Amino acid sequence: MAAWRERLRGFAGRFRRGEASVRPNDARGGAVAASLRGLLEDPSIPADVREAMGADFRRVEQMLDRLENEELHVAVFGRVSAGKSALGNALLGRQAFTVGVLHGTTTEADAARLDEAAAAGLVLIDTPGINELGGEAREKLAFEVAEVSDLIVFVADGDLTREERDALRALASTRRPLLLVLNKADRYSDDEREGLLERLRQHTASLVRREDVVAVAALPSPRQVVDIDADGNERRRSEARPADVAALKSRLLAIAEREGKALSAINAGLFAGRLTDQVSQRIAAARREVGSGVIRQYCIAKAVAVALNPVPVADLLLAGGLDAAMVVQLGRVYGLPLTRSESGRLVAVISTQLAALMGAVWGVQLVASALKGISGGLSVVVTAAAQGALGWYATVLIGRAAEHYLVAGKSWGEHGAKRAVADVVASLDRDSILREAREEILKRLRR
Prior knowledge:
By secondary structure, the chain is an alpha/beta fold. It has two domains: 2-215 and 247-276, P-loop containing nucleotide triphosphate hydrolases (Rossmann fold, 3-Layer(aba) Sandwich); 309-446, no CATH class. 61% of the residues lie in helices and 9% in strands. Strand 4 (151-156), helix 7 and strand 5 form a beta-alpha-beta unit. The two termini are 48 Å apart.
């Protein structure tokens, strides 16, 4: 799991830093495809995690198909009634998407392949409008589609509203290339259209390249024609005008031809990288829940054993053995088995750091242990709860520190053991743990 995860993260990191160049035959596409297969086939991912994240894994399967079929998915995005569906139909040259006069005609994402771009693998995806009243679910769907698309065409029919500017910034944060399209350009005179395009370029200068702001007329208003017959009678009629989307189509085809494969690979790699992190978090959370159960079992066992053992120092040796056994079991829970000797060394490292941080606690442990020899066993009554509670607390600290070590892949991470153990100590409420431990021990002793 770690190998392909590192490949995905490395690739995604280079892209974010601008080091991943975009070339039509980028060899990284093959590496990303191999990583996606590794993610889909990884036997270490538990079945319940796969089931819970089924939609995300199906999306990875779709992305793998896209890579293998060399498709570039283009999301047509924008405000309700800006003409997204009409624009898609105009680009396709056929009625693939539903166009209506009512707000919210498009209620779910729909896709169609641009035949003219078959070699480049362009696939258009029509999305619901972002601002339909009561359409929060549709807006969420539109953003999800845009996030997993390779290229976004944002459609506006005038100067941008605040809502559109916010949406554009949110889409730009997904790192997808953006094209901004001024639709219904036939409504403006030449001077008005050029002025509006310039304002759009200025408002989106940090988000969209100047050459990627273009004007189209997906569904131009009909032309009014006057026919005069032989007798001089006039008859007015409306004549449909052809769509004017040549500039946008040319730009899309050029991008698909030059950058399509790399864009698709980049998007798939970024999505799979995020999914990998989510899978890791879910697995870690599930293991942590099981690990917490293991730690609690050993807390009880160690606290009672230490409290009831009347032999000085022997109780501390017993505690050390139980701690080592707990760490061995935690290693199995986290899928990183430890031998008994490795476990003992890990406990020694953690205990050394804890002694340096909390010498007073371990001093009390040693004094309480020594009292057993002086009091002839009376300390079982006098010191049992206190010493047992401290043993419980020490077990929690050792268990949590061992979990930190295991989650980091049997390493302490960049800051080392001292910092890791200190963070564990700082994160736990000692008074609360000691209170719980004393109550549990006294309850068991009464039995």
